[in-house]
Amino acid sequence: MSQPRRWIMPALLVLLALFLLSGFYVVDVTEYAVVTRFGNPVAIHTEPGLHYDPLKFLLSINRIDARMLVLDLPPAEFLTEDKKNVVTSGYVTWSVKDPLKYLQRVYSRTGAESRMTDVLSSEIGAALGSVPFGALVSTDPDEARLAEVALAIHEKSRERIERDYGVDVVDFRFKRLSFPDQNQSAVFQRMRAERQRIARKFRSEGEEEATKIRAEADRESSEILAKAERQAAEFRGEGEAEATRIYAEAIRKDPGFYDFLRTLESYEKIVDENMTIVIPSDSDLMQLLMYGPKRGG
To answer: Domains in the chain, start-ordered, CATH in brackets?
Structure first.
């Protein structure tokens, strides 16, 4: 066998081995793979792993990022329900849900984010146009609707984007809400009015509570005074009754002395210090003054 022919078989075996080995391809954990042949899908891989196709040289392996991605929305100006201008910016977190639809409709991340920006801008405009300006800046939980607006934007845009592009919009948030120069004075006026309203509410509640406390204190004071007056009347009644009892007991024991005291009291009322009285020595008064009252018994 000649020298060139001796190498033909090993060379063919090497070429065959290379051909067979070239049919292997790997799908990474961070990606999906859509395999197409002449533009037609032949396999969709959503799980990582090693795959093989002997005709790999005829295939196109389209790798799609499977991770959670973030799209920052540029600032844009919108009108509220009451025709006030607001400037908003936000962001969405998203991921590919249908790799084949994603590949066919948008092809790449750049294309997907461009389409999502259009849809989200449309939904933001519609949502902001359905609420008044005050609902976006109010600090009152009963009036504030910014979170409600963000939720509505997320739900509506998620449905459209998933249906049309195979993308799942996981979340939407406002990143910034600002106002053009012509709206700043209205914003500040609204904030001042809101603070004044809250201050009036607190003052009213404080005055109401103070009135309740004063009324309660007056009621308790009246009850205490009434109770004290009742007790004082009871004590006075008991004292007067006891005095009357003692008085009657004293009269019963010495009626003459009682008559003597009553006589002195009557003279005390009709005689003053400038009056001169002449009393006969045999009069009852002189006898009373000289000898005292006659003892009973």
So the answer is: 3-65 (no CATH), 69-179 (3.30.479.30), 255-297 (no CATH)
